[in-house]
Amino acid sequence: MYRITELARHFGLSRSTLLYYDRIGLLSPSGRSGANYRRYSEAEREKLATICSLRQAGVDIEGIRAILATAGDDTTAVLKRRLEEIGREIAALSAKQHLLAGMLKLYGEGGPSGSVDKEMFVSLLRAAGMDDQAMKTLHVEFERREPAAHHAFLRSLGIPEEEALRIRAWSQEAGGE
Question: Rounded to two decimals, what is the model's pTM?
Answer without folding.
Answer: 0.49
